[in-house]
From TrEMBL:
Keywords: Aminoacyl-tRNA synthetase, ATP-binding, Ligase, Metal-binding, Nucleotide-binding, Protein biosynthesis, Zinc. It comes from the Bacteria. NCBIfam families: PRK05710.1-2 (NF004313), PRK05710.1-3 (NF004314), queuosine_YadB (TIGR03838). Catalyzes the tRNA-independent activation of glutamate in presence of ATP and the subsequent transfer of glutamate onto a tRNA(Asp). Glutamate is transferred on the 2-amino-5-(4,5-dihydroxy-2-cyclopenten-1-yl) moiety of the queuosine in the wobble position of the QUC anticodon. ATP binds at K249. A motif ('KMSKS' region) lies at residues 246-250. GO terms for molecular function: ligase activity. Gene3D superfamilies: HUPs. Residues 6-253 form the Glutamyl/glutaminyl-tRNA synthetase class Ib catalytic domain. The gene is gluQ. This is Glutamyl-Q tRNA(Asp) synthetase. The lineage of its organism: Bacteria, Pseudomonadati, Pseudomonadota, Betaproteobacteria, Burkholderiales.
């Protein structure tokens, strides 16, 4: 089977230094596997409220300026709702999805009553309030019955291997709870959409930032429940802002400058150094990219 990798940005703002690291890493991982491997770009615009008009096209233009060109035309999540709906119906049929009427305030109050208050940056572990019914509340979301699904497993801790981080563990039912598949306002949740998309596109290797590593166990549970293949995972280092937090659009990350080939090479050089690759003296992005393929192969030994 030929390797397939992907870069899946959300069009909530332009590419910045942190997102370029993920794009470069996923591109190099594919190119290091040989001429038959394919690199895809998927615009993750399912959360329409956060996405900006025209930003998906702008991101594709930035990638093209850096010579990071997908092997097939990009896909857009807003055009794939029927796939997600089928997956949700399948989970309902398996009794692994149920409606939830809880707001965030409801969840916080329930957790506080249990002596488990939600902390900033911490996981809001769903207490299972609607697991046995809505109790007269209107449905606000559909949730995956993680506790029910994991109850049949011998070990409650799900184990998976990351190509950079090694063995990883998470007890999803205890550390996350029954997580959202579709929100009350309509958009599909990231966890379901990414699992369905990766399987539908034949993705064999997911290379993304380490901030998303915590999502992996949830996605593996969904893959198993839906009978979908599990890709290999590699989570890259993050670029940090001046406040020590992950560089993001929320904390003022500046867009990368790709106005000229020289500017694009500078942006790529910064991303390459985060990945442990040497700076390039190339004059064009394409030349710089080709020079890093062997270095990536030596660092991560990607398989075909």
């Amino acid at each position: 089977m030929n390797a397939i990798g992907r870069f899946a940005p959300s069009p909530t703002g332009p590419l910045h230094a942190g997102s370029l690291v993920a794009a470069l890493a996923s591109w190099l991982d594919v190119r290091a596997r040989g001429s038959q491997a394919r690199w895809l770009v998927r615009i993750e615009d399912a959360d329409t409220e956060r996405c900006l008009p025209g930003m998906g096209e702008h991101i594709l233009s930035q990638l093209a300026d850096c010579s990071l060109l997908p092997d097939v035309p990009p896909v857009w999540q807003t055009q794939r709702g029927a796939l997600y709906a089928r997956a949700l119906e399948h989970l309902k049929a398996l009794q692994l999805a149920y409606p939830c009427g809880c707001s965030r305030k409801d969840i916080d109050e329930a957790l506080a009553q249990r002596g488990e208050p939600h902390h900033r940056h911490g996981e809001r572990v769903y207490p299972g309030t609607c697991r046995d019914g809505l109790h007269g509340k209107p449905p606000r979301a559909w949730r995956f019955a993680a506790e029910q699904y994991e109850a049949a497993r011998t070990s409650k801790r799900l184990c998976w291997s990351d190509r950079r981080l090694g063995c990883q563990y998470q007890d999803v039912a205890h550390e996350v709870g029954d997580f959202v598949l579709k929100r009350a306002d309509g958009p599909w949740a990231y966890q379901l959409a990414v699992v369905v998309d990766d399987a539908d596109q034949g993705v064999t290797d997911v290379v993304r930032g380490v901030d998303l590593a915590d999502n992996t166990a949830r996605q593996i549970l969904l893959q198993r429940a839906l009978g979908l293949p599990q890709p290999r995972y590699l989570h890259t280092p993050l670029v940090l802002g001046s406040d020590g937090e992950k560089l993001s659009k929320q904390n003022g990350a500046a867009p990368i400058d790709t106005a000229t080939p020289a500017a694009a090479v500078r942006a790529l050089n910064a991303a390459a150094q985060v990945l442990g690759l040497p700076a390039s003296n190339a004059s064009t992005p394409a030349e710089a990219l080709s020079g890093w393929v062997e270095g990536w192969r030596a660092l991560y030994n990607p398989r075909p």
